[in-house]
Write a structure and sequence with these properties.
CATH architecture: Alpha-Beta Complex
Shape: globular
Number of helices: 2
Structural class: alpha+beta
CATH class: Alpha Beta
Largest sheet: 7 strands, mixed
Number of domains: 1
Order of helices and strands: EEEEHEEEH
Radius of gyration: 14 Å
CATH superfamily: Nucleoside Triphosphate Pyrophosphohydrolase
Strand content: 35-45%
Distance between the termini: 46 Å
CATH topology: Nucleoside Triphosphate Pyrophosphohydrolase
């Protein structure tokens, strides 16, 4: 089974992350996700993420950094998620394809139904930003 390479953008503004709901007809449809998309053959992950976020939510990424790499087997599909933190961008994030989307507090992300592969991203974000702020 071929592994689908996906660039995932964790778009952070203050203590909030931008999430969107997957279209029902898609794999893992109806669940919330961090925006992004499949890497084209000729692209780097950075290029993929910049292209996808411009197309999907209308922002121009000005800075991105590695957050984590996840490989997950859903049984019917294997994915490699190259998860990147986006804290600097131009434009207002709003879904260009009619999907529901919103800014959510990092501490509230676990209340949303995400695909299984995304749960470790939420755990990482909570450990980086919520637990650290509680220690201050």
């Amino acid at each position: 089974m071929k592994i689908v390479e996906v660039a995932v953008g964790v778009i952070k503004q203050g203590n909030e992350i931008y999430i969107s709901k997957r279209a029902e007809k898609l794999h893992q449809g109806g669940k919330w996700e961090f925006p992004g998309g499949k890497r084209e053959e000729h692209e780097t992950i950075e290029q993929t993420l910049s292209r996808e976020l411009a197309e999907e939510i209308g922002i121009q990424v000005t800075k991105q950094s590695e957050l984590m790499l996840i490989e997950h087997d859903y049984g019917d599909k294997k994915v490699r998620l190259d998860v990147r933190l986006v804290e600097s961008f131009n434009g207002q994030a709003s879904h260009q394809e009619g999907q529901q989307s919103q800014w959510v507090a990092i501490s509230d992300l676990s209340q949303y139904n995400f695909p299984e592969a995304n749960k470790v991203i939420i755990d990482r974000l909570v450990s980086l930003y919520v637990q650290n702020s509680e220690k201050k």
